Amino acid sequence: MADRGCPLQPMPLPAEVRESLAELELELSEGDITQKGYEKKRAKLLARYIPLIQDVHTEAVQAALAKYKERKMPLPSKRRSILVHSSVETCTPPDTSSASEDEGSLRRPGRLTSTPLQSHSSVEPWLDRVIQGSSTSSSASSTSSHPGGRPAAALAGLVAHAHIADLHSAPPDVTTGLVEYSHCERPQPASVRGVPRGCSGRLLDTSGGVPVNSRVSSKIQQLLNTLKRPKRPPLKEFFVDDMEELLEVQQPDPNQPKPEGSQMVVLKGEPLSLGTPWPPSLLAALQRWGTMQPKAPCLTALDTTGKAVYTLTYGKLWSRSLKLAYTLLNKLTSKNEPLLKPGDRVALVFPNSDPVMFMVAFYGCLLAELVPVPIEVPLTKKDAGSQQIGFLLGSCGVTLALTTDACQKGLPKAQTGEVATFKGWPPLNWLVIDGKHLTKPPKDWHPLAQDEGAGTAYIEYKTSKEGSTVGVTVSHASLLAQCRALTQACGYLEAETLTNVLDFKRDAGLWHGVLTSVMNKMHVISIPYALMKVNPLSWIQKVCLYKAQTALVKSRDMHWSLLAQRGQRDVSLSSLRMLIVADGANPWSISSCDAFLNVFQSRGLRPEVICPCASSPEALTVAIRRPPDLGGPPPRKAVLSMNGLSYGVIRVDTEEKLSVLTVQDVGQVMPGANICVVKIDGAPYLCKTDEVGEICVDSNATGTAYYGLLGITKNVFETVPVTAGGAPISDRPFTRTGLLGFIGPDNLVFIVGKLDGLMVVGVRRHNADDIVATALAVEPMKFVYRGRIAVFSVRVLHDDRIVLVAEQRPDASEEDSFQWMSRVLQAIDSIHQVGVYCLALVPANTLPKAPLGGVHVSEAKQRFLEGMLHPCNVLMCPHTCVTNLPKPRQKQPEVGPASMIVGNLVAGKRIAQASGRELAHLEDSDQARKFLFLPDVLQWRAHTTPDHPLFLLLNAKGTVTSTATCVQLHRKAERVAAALTEKARLSIGDHVALVYPPGVDLIAAFYGCLYCGCVPVTVRPPHPQNLATTLPTVKMIVEVSKSACVLTTQAIMRLLKSKEAAATVDIRTWPTVLDTDDIPKKKVANVFRPPSPDVLAYLDFSVSTTGILAGVKMSHAATSALCRSIKLQCELYPSRQIAICLDPYCGLGFALWCLCSVYSGHQSVLVPPLELESNVSLWLSAVSQYKARVTFCSYSVMEMCTKGLGAQTGVLRMKGVNLSCVRTCMVVAEERPRIALTQSFSKLFKDLGLPARAVSTTFGCRVNVAICLQGTAGPDPTTVYVDMRALRHDRVRLVERGSPHSLPLTESGKILPGVKVIIAHTETKGPLGDSHLGEIWVSSPHNATGYYTVHGEEALHADHFSARLSFGDTQTIWARTGYLGFLRRTELTDASGERHDALYVVGSLDETLELRGMRYHPIDIETSVIRAHRSIAECAVFTWTNLLVVVVELDGLEQDALDLVALVTNVVLEEHHLVVGVVVIVDPGVIPINSRGEKQRMHLRDGFLADQLDPIYVAYNM
Length: 1518
Prior knowledge:
- 29% of the residues lie in helices and 22% in strands.
- The chain contains 43 helices and 64 strands.
- The strands form 17 sheets. The chain has a nine-stranded mixed sheet with strand order 9-8-19-18-20-21-22-23-26, with helices on both faces.
- The radius of gyration is 40 Å and the shape is elongated.
C-alpha cells in the first residue's frame, strides 16, 4: 500500500478486537448495555491501539461540546398527561431500518478510525492542503462516537451570546427591573389586586406587588440570562421594506474566503469503446438471450426469510414480456377502440418484494411501445407524497396501471370492491398481469418495437425539495447509452452475478439491476427491503452463497450489517470485484465505507473493491470509482473546512481541526461524458478550480426532459455553461445534476452535497446532510430512534431557517430529550457556525416514511408548516437565529408640542378635535333644570304617570318575572330608604353596597339610597359555585368603597355568611347586611334633596382590563347630563321600548339599566346576560316580541348568539323571530370595535330581517361612560384601513383595503351631544394632527368627577380628570380616557349639515406593549396568532421583563399542543417582527374574560407568574 502514496500505515485491529467491538455496538443499539458501560468496555478494548484511533467528525462534536460549560437553561414545562404519548406505534416493531433513503439521514458514522494521511505532492497548491492521498483501507471511519469526556452541556452557553433583537444596539441588561419592574405610561388609579391564592413556593414580589411563583420566574430568569449578550454584532446596512420597518440585510463579510484558483476546464471522460460488439438495442439483447440461451438465469427473487422463491430465466422473461405486450396491444379495448396507442404512458405498481413481475411488466411495455412509469404501491389513502404521485400520473395522462394479483388484493378498496381512487389521482384501470390473465400471442405475431432514437423509453419519478413530484423522461437512445457506459465503467461480463439491495424501480437499482444486467445476460439476486429489515446481513450472505462478483448497496446497508455481523464466522466476500455504493455522493458515506472495510477486510474484502458512485435522476450515473484493474486511479480523501464550504470555497481549516468535512472521491467521469462545474446561483458561469458548484454533464446517457414541463426542462436539461467572459464552452447543452462538488486531482469527482439539501442562511450555504451527521454524532444510538432525523429549512422573515426533527427512542426521558437537544444545538453552532431555528422531537415511527424506509423530508416539512407533525418536545431558538430584524426604533429627542402644531399647520393637517351637537340650544333649559336630580324625576313620574310601565324583567324561558311602573318603583324605593335610616341608622352621605342579581330590586334599592341621601355602590353578587374567586372581589369593593351597609336579597345574605364564605373571607368583618325581601311598607317623611348638583350621586366601581379595581365618583349633575345626552342621541320618549342585554353593575350598562328609563320615561325590557347560558335566543326573541327599535348588548352576548345560533336561524324564523324592527343594535364596549364579530353577526341574522346598517358600537371608559354612541339618526359608521406598521410608530396612514399590513378599524359610534374630544400626545400633552395616534381626551358635562381612591391618592391621579393641554387651548379642562385613537373628517354630513368627524379607538394605553422602541397593541398580535392554526381557540399576549409571552388556548388533542409553538413563533415574527419569548399552551377557558367580554391580560399574567394556569406546555424560546 505504501506505493499508493500512503506514508502512514495504520496498525490494523486484530480480528477478535473488531468482533468484540461490533458485539459491543450491537449491545448498545439494543439497549443491553448503558452508554457508560459501553464507553468503559470500548476504552479497555482499544487501550493498546488508541494512539491510532481518532475520528474527525465525532471527535469534533465532542470537542465542541466540551467547550461549553455546564450552564442551566429553562426546561420546558409539560403536563404529565402528554408525556404518555398514546402512539400505538411506539410499541410496534419498527418498520424501518434506517433513516432517510435519499436525504441521507442515517449516516451514523462508524467508530474506528485512523490518522488522516499525509498530502500528495503533485497537486495544485490549494488542493495540496486539502487532498489526502489514501486508500480506503488505510483509514477506517471518519467518525467515532467515542464521546471525548461526555461533557455535560446546557444550551445556555450557546445562547449566552444570543442576539436578542428587541434591545437597542447597546444591549441593556434585560434582567434589571426583574423586581423593581414597573411599567406605567400614565399614573394608575389605586391598584387593589387580589393576591392569587394557593401560590406555592417562595414568592418573589414583582410588578407592583404581584406575587410571583419562583418556579416560573427562575425559569424566565435563566432564559433572560442566556439572552444577555448579543450573539452577532448589529449590522449597519439594511434595505427598506415598505416604509417603516427596515429589515437588516446581511452584508458579505470582507474576510470571508474567496476562490483563488484558475477557471476550470471541461473534464472529458474516456470514449465509449467502439471495438466491442454491442447489441443494437436493449430489446435486441433480450430477444437474443431469450431465444438463444433461454435457460440462463436472469433474476432470483427472495422472500422475507431469505429463501430463493423464484428464478426468472431469460427465456421466461422474453416469452412473458411478449405475452404481456400482445395483451396490452390487442386485448384491451374501450368502446371497440384499442385502449392504448404506442407512446401512451402506463403506471407500474409493484411492491419491493416482487422484482420478477416488475421486470416482465417493464419489458412488456417496451415491447408494446408503451412508456412505463414505475411508482410506489399506495398502501393507504394518506401515504406521504401520494397526492403528488397522483398529480404526476394525471399530467402524464396515465389511464392504466399494471400490478400483480397479490398487490391488487392489498390495495384499499371502495364500497364497490374496485380499487379506491386515491386523493389527487386520475381515474385508473387496473390490469393484473399474472400469467393466467394474459393471452398467448399467435406464432406469427412480432412486436414492432422501435427502441432506438429519441422516443421516450420510460419515465422515472423524482420528488423535489418542495415535495412536488416530476417525471424525468429517458429516451431509448439514452437508455442504451447508459447501459453501454455502465457496462464499460463497471467492466460487466456475460453471466456475472450481481446482488442488488436497492429499489429496482428507479435510480441505480433500475439501471444496474434491470437494464444493464439484461444487456450483459447477468444474473441478479434481488434482496427485498423487508428482508434487510429482518436480517441486515442477508446481502452479505447472498454474495457469499452465489459467489457474486458485484454488489449494489447504499451506505446504510453497510452500516446496519456492521451492527449485525457478530457470530458470522464463515462469511467470505472474496468473490466481490466491485461493491458499488450507490449513495457514495453523500458526504457521510465515507464513514460507513471505512468501518465496513475495517471489519470485513479479514473476511476477504479487498480495499479496492469499494466503489462509491454519484448519480441523479436527471443525469443518471454521473461518476463511479473503477477498480485498479479497470484503470482507476487510487482513491482519495479530502479534508475540507466546513467554514470554507459554507462560502462555496474549498479550503483546509487551519485554525480549528474541529469543523472539517472529510469526503471521498466518487471516481471518474462516465465513459462518453463531459463534466463541468458551474456556479449555483444566476447564469451558469464556470467555477474556479477551488470553488464548489453544481456539476453538469454532457452525455448521450442523461435524461431528456421533465415530462410536460417545458420551462424547467430548458433550465435543467439544456444548460449552456459559459466562461467568465460569457463565451459558451460547448455547442452541446449540458444537464444539471443537482449535485454540488468539485473536480480533484487525477480528475476524480468529489461531491459535497445536493442542491435539494442546500439551505442558505444569511450569505452562507449549509447542507442538510452535514447537519444530520453532526446531530447524529452527539449521542447517536442512545437517543435518536434508528437514526431517523430530517433537516430542512423554512422561510421566515425573508431568510432560510434551519429546522431539525428527530424521532426519539420510546424510552427517552424528558431530561434526556432536553439534554440531547441542547447538546445538538451547541454542536451545530460550534461546527457549522449556524443557529438551529427549531429543534423538534417526535415519537418513534411517526415521521413520514419514504418508500424504502427513509424519512420523507418534504412531507415532514409540509407537516411542520401545517402544524401536523405532533412533536413531543420542541425547542425554538429565534433569538439566536433571527438576526435580520428591523433595528429597534430610537426615540427622537422630544419634539415640543408647539412645533408639532406648527408642523401640522405647515403640512396642512388639521388639529384632531371634534364635538357632538351643542346642548344649550337643543332643549328647553327649564326641563333640564327640573330634571337635574333623578329622585325628583322619579317622584314627578310617580305623580303624573303612576301606571306607566318602566321595566320588564325576563327570565330564561322568556316570561316576565317582574315589572315596575313609575309608582311601584317609587314605593319600593321609599321602603328601602326607610329601612336604611331606621334599621341601619345611616346618615346622609354614607355609602351603601348593593349586592343584587340583575333585576328590579337592584333599581329600587338604588333609588332608595338616593331618597335618603346615601351613596349607592352596585356590586356583582358572588357566584355560588365559585365563591373562592368571586367573593374576595365583593369584599374588596365593600371595603374600598367604605360602605357602611350592604343591601341584598335573603338568598345572597345567607351566602355571604355561609361556612363556604368563611373559608374565603373573614365574614365577621362585613358591615351591617340588610335583606330587602320582606321590609315593611313605610313612607319616608321627606325625600332628600341635595344642596347642589355637584353632590356625589353614586360610585361606579369596575375592574379594568389591566386588572385594576377603581371607583369613579358621579355627581347628580353628571348623572342627569349623561341621561340627557343618551336620550337625545337615541331619541328616547315614554312611548318607546328598548331591550337591554347587559350587566347592570358599572359603566354604560348600569346607566342604561338603572338611570335612563327613569329620566326619559321609556320602557326597558331587561334581559340578564346570565340567562342566555340556558337559552341563547332569549335576547333576540325579546327584541322581536317587544318590537324594540333600539337594543344594547355586550360583545360576549353577541359572540354567544353568533356561535350558539349560527345553524338555527331557520328554526328562529319558524318561531316567528323577526328583527326588522331594529333601527340600532349597539354593542357597549371599552375597546377597539371587533369588526369581524359585528360583521358576522350582521350577516348571520340578515335572514331574520336585521337591517345591514343596524349594528354599531359604543365607546366609553371610566372617566366618561358614554363618549360615542351611534344613536338613531346621523350617517352610518365608517370603516378605514390603516397601515399596522405605521400605528406602531403612533402614526396613522390610510391604505387600500387588502393591501399588506392593512388593519380595518371602524368608528365607535357618533360623539354624544355636549361631548368634545381631542387627540393629545401621551407624553407632551400637546394637541395632535389628524395623522397621529394619540390619547383620546374628553370634555363633557357628564364626565365623572374623580376617582374614589384609597389612601387619599387623589393628587396622583388628578390629571386623569382635570388635564389641560400644554399648548393651544390651555383653558379647557379635559379628562384623559387612557385610550389611544385618532379622528378623521369624513365625506359624510351630520344632521346639522356639518362634515362628520369620526372617532376611531385603537386600544387601551395601559395594555400596549412597548417592544423594540415601538408600541404594539395586544389584539393585533393575538389576531395573527389565532389565524396560525385551526386548533387555537383563543389567545392573549403580555410582556414580562422584555419577553413577549403568548398564551394560546388549545381546542384539540393535548398531544397536538406542541405543533403550535413553531407556528405561533413564525407568525409573530413574520407579521410583527417580534421574537416570542415564551409560548404557553393551556386548556380552553383559561384566559380570563370580564363581563364585557374583554380579556383580562394582567390577571392572566399574574396567574402565569404564580404558576396557576396548569399549562399543557410551556416553551421557552431561546
